Every structure is written in structure tokens, then in C-alpha cells.
Amino acid sequence: MRKIIHIVHWEMSGIFEVAKTLAVRGGELGDTHEIIVLRKNKKLSDKVLSIFRMMSCIYKLFFIKNSIIHAHSFLPFLLTVFTRNSDVVLTFHNAYPFLKEISLKSRLKCNFLKFVINSKSPKLTAVGKLVSEYVSSGTGFEAMTIQNGMKISAFDFTLPDKPIRYIGSVGRLDEQKNYTELIKAIVFVSSNIELKIAGEGIQRQRLEALIERNEIKNIKLIGFINNIISFHNTTDAFICSSIFEGCNLSIIESILLGKPVISTNVGVAYDFPELDLIRMETNEQSMTKEINKWLELSLDELQATAKKNRKLAEHLFNINTVYDIYRDKIWELGRYE
Question: What is residue 96's predicted lDDT score, i.e. its pLDDT?
Fold first, then answer.
């Protein structure tokens, strides 16, 4: 049996959780997985250590045999240039901006990606339909769409039993997550709600200044959290304000827990119109309008939505199904048994 070696850029990321979930499921089936993480945190000391991790990774990849190298983003994939192993997989986890921008830097990055793909001939996968479209239009290569998988039994489903009061959001504090527009929108929401945003990023000071300038008392930036389920359990609902996404784990987690969801039309919301989500545009005005409509839903409506979405999510994002697709279609482990 061959080993699958996952290379992940950040440990504090949803991508790491995706790789870990695949590895756990593989272990249950007797498959062998290893996860190599290049960055543990954003401290300067870890940045230095990451250089040694990359060197160690390159050394391992150069000498390794009879393994499948599964890179989960751009930098990990570049390291596969140094491997003599021909079985390489690249998964695109997001609608990467460099695939749609026209700046010189973006074009150079995209052209280099094309060159490496040509040289390594990896199998390409994408965690969403829109991501796959960007990959195809930006690189000229087709990527098979495989959604992220979740261990369904890890999420205890609970029906909404009270009106929405505490709303949660999870993500890096950066431009992609579009928190500036969301914060502006919350100011004009009519109901008495509190928004809790879990995550860290380069926009923290900017967002804090926006909150302070507008004297907003009902928005909390609570920073990075280790236990995402515990965070969801402190909220009544979930909101996604992103400009682009891949397969946003936080929406799936919220649905599996029974939380009502409102989202911009990206990621899971875009890929699965059958999910009963309220969808909004990425601007402040649309967000305010749709959030107010969302908060007016009756408890019966919220419960009916929760039941429908949980049933769909159990089918669409079950790690057992997702793992089988990777095992049979991408890693082709069955050929070596």
C-alpha cells in the first residue's frame, strides 16, 4: 500500500483540517497518510523555522518512492518540482485571486503555475465548481470538483429553539472575507443582535478602528479559536460575507449543527442552490436588507430550514463519500492492493 503525503502551507487553516479529516478516514480504512505542515503560526521565529521545514520537505520528496504527493496550495505544489515521484496531486481550495487578476505579478504567477503543471502533470482537483471554473479559465487545465468532506457524527444537530440573537462568522481578517461591508451593514440592522467574528488577520486594526469610529457595541472581534464547534455553540446563526470562497467549511459546520445561515453567493452557497440559505450581495446595502429579512423568519421556518439543510449536508459532504472519490479517482489506491 502506498502512502499519501499531504503538504499544507498553514496549520491554522481550514485546509489543514481538510487534510487531517482525509488522513483520519484513511486510517480507519487501513490507508497510510502523512501531513507535512510548512507554517505553524505567523511569528517571526516560525517564519525562520518554516525555511528549514521546506528544506526538509524537499529532501524527503527527492528521495521518496512509491508515494502520492498531495499538495494543498500553490507553495506546497512548487516543492513537488524537486520530487522524482511522478504521482502528484494539486488541490485548489479557493478561487485564487491570481487566476482572475490581470496585474503583472498575477500573470507571472499564473504562467509559472502553468509551467509547473506542464512539467509535473499532476492530477488537479478543486473544492468547488466556481474554483474549478477559475482554474480552467486561468490556467487552461481542467480540475475535477471534489467537495470537502466532514465527519458527520462529530456534529450534534440541534433545532433552533429561539429567535436569532447571537450571529457568528469565522475567517481571516482580510479583504476576501469582506468584513468591512458586513460591519457597516450591521449598524443598520433593525433587530437587537450581536455579531462575533472569530479569526485573525492583517485587517484587524482597520476593523477595530471602524468599530470604534462608529461606536458599535454589538460586534466583537474575538481572535483565533482552537475549537470551532465550541464557538458555533455560542451562536444562534452563521453569516458569510466573503467576496470569494472555495468550499467554506464554516457554513457546512453550521448547517450540520442546525444553525440558520445567510451568505454571499460564493462557495457552498453558489455550488448548491438546493440548500435553503438566504443569499446576499457583497455590498452593505444588500447585506442590511437580507439580514433584516433573515431575522424576521419564524421559529417554524428556521426549524424547517435546519432539517432540510442537515439532510442535504449529510449527503453532500460526508467524508466517507468524499474519501472514496479521492481513493478511487485521484489517488487510485485500488490499483496497488
Answer: 66
Under DSSP, the state recorded for 221 is E
Helix (H, G, I), strand (E, B) or coil at 184: helix
Q: Rounded distance, CA 207 to CA 173, Å?
A: 8
- Reduced DSSP (H G I as helix, E B as strand, rest coil) percent helix, strand, coil of the chain, to 5: 50, 20, 35
> Cβ neighbours of residue 6 under 8 Å, at least 6 residues apart?
19, 22, 23, 33, 34, 35, 36, 70, 72
Extended beta strands in 51-136, E state: 67-71, 88-92, 123-126
Residues 67-100, buried b or exposed e (16+ Cβ, 10 A)?
A: bbbbbbbbbbbbbbeebebebbbbbbbbbbebbe
The reported pLDDT for the residue numbered 219 is 96
Cβ atoms 292, 191 nearer than 8 A: yes
The phi, psi pair for 170, rounded to 5°, reads: -130, 130
Intervals of the chain under pLDDT 70: 86, 96-102, 334-337
**DSSP letters of 163-186?**
---EEEEES-SSGGGTHHHHHHHH
Task: Look up residue 266 and give its DSSP letter.
Answer: S
pLDDT at 160: 96
Taking the model in full, what pTM does it have?
0.92
Other Cβ atoms closer than 10 A to 137 = 10
DSSP state of 152: G
Q: State residue 15's pLDDT score.
A: 94
Domains of the chain: 3-149+318-336 (3.40.50.2000), 152-316 (3.40.50.2000)
Query: What pLDDT does 4 receive?
Result: 96
DSSP label at residue 2: P
Q: Is the dihedral of CA 250, 10, 226, 3 positive or negative?
A: positive
| 181 vs 101: CA distance, rounded Å | 22
Q: How far is CA 30 from the centre of its chain?
A: 27
